[in-house]
Amino acid sequence: MKGLTVLALLLASLISTPAVADWRVAETRHFVVYGETAEPVLRRYAERLEKFDKALRLARGVPDVPPGKAGRLTVFLLNSQDRVAALARNANIAGFYIPRAGASVAFVPEDLADGGRTALSPQQVLQHEYAHHFMFTTWPNAAFPSWVAEGWAEFHATASFDRAGTIQFGAAPAYRAYGLLTGTPLPIQTILAGAAGKLRPDQTDALYGRGWALVHYLTFEPSRKGQLGAYLDAISRERKTPEAAASVFGDLGTLNRELERFLGKPRISGFRIAADQLAIPPVAIRVLGPAEAAILPVIVRSQAGVNARTAPEILAEARKVAARFPDHAGVQRALAEAAYDAGEYAAALAAADRAIALDPGLVEAHCYRAMALMAIAQAANDRKPESWAEIRRTIGRANRLDTEDPRPLILFFNSYAALGQMPPPIAREGLLHAYELAPQDRGLRMQTATMLLADGKPAQARSLLLALTYDPHASGIGAAASTLIDTIDARKNGAGPAPGPAK
Fold this sequence. Notes:
Helix content is 58%, strand content 7%. By secondary structure, the chain is an alpha+beta fold. It has a six-stranded mixed β-sheet with strand order 4-5-3-2-1-9, with helices on both faces. α16 runs parallel beside α18 (406-417).
């Protein structure tokens, strides 16, 4: 009887536990979306993202220039918020976006743990993160203080589709209700000044919520027409500080009182884009093969970022999968990345060579081959021309496979900078083109700016650096950009030495 009871319980658990869905990938003009979910669910996410992009372009008058294969945003739909938070190493994170040249990526949950009208939905997380990507790639030389960047993303995050497929913009973020309606721990003067520095969780929530309220109010309130644009122009073009730029709003106490009245309204303004304006090409969806599905968790962890503790763990997992699928090019490419991240450059080179032998068209495999060769040469202090000629031949092959992928262009520039040499004009032109292809990459923006300084183009360099100083996620790069701007301005005013290239 005991055995039968155990068997019955086991059968019951199998019946009550849904089968694990296959990993699928959906590809559109602007997105590559991976999800361990049913095809209709994945199709809905991908279609809505593509239509959301189109709606943003229609609303803002932005032309749709094909981004190229490397310019698409990769989105990983994970099966819980806990997985997203674990990848972000932050329990409070519901989704996050990493802007990288040729490999920008977002991680969002397919379903959030807490439901209800005031919960942050997966669609809103996706739209918030993509709004950041759209902003940074569409207006690369604009400087957006943190309240604008986050408020603009929140404004678009709440866009919703009705049954007919019409999209509505302007809804309030109900998930920010507590912070919006119970006062703010951040005075409006602090918010408009950029709210720089580390913030408490309640202050961060206030920045996002009040940022949304300000963006919405300044967009739709007739008496405030043009003020938001004037504020941003004062920062980006007139080189004013956010505090000084805030003078375009007049008395800030008056603005704050108007904002409180706006928040108390039962209905607020918005706009709609009809479904017939949002036609998109069909979404291509396929089920991942056994090797692709097996290596995808490794790719997810690698793409989310590694450190000294996690890199060896990820490499160990990659090696297990590679042992099962030694003849799969994508698996070997992922192994090359994991080995490179763990500092095992010879292993990375060997895996990249296997990937290239299996599929010579893998741009990333050629890139990791070049990166591994550079790391090996630098570790051995190998400056022989033939060694670096081979590195550049590898980079050249990657570039010919996709001339609009910024990564080979960056590597070509770095192949000279790594030797302490001034890169030739073709390499400097290539780096500038890489930046034009991927202005959202903060490290690339800084690298391009320092190159422009070395080329005697401080005004161009300053324009690139300014955006970093207000980027709420730029961290140490933002501080370094601010220091460089101070040096440029001091030199322009005849005080201080000319800025040189960063080491």
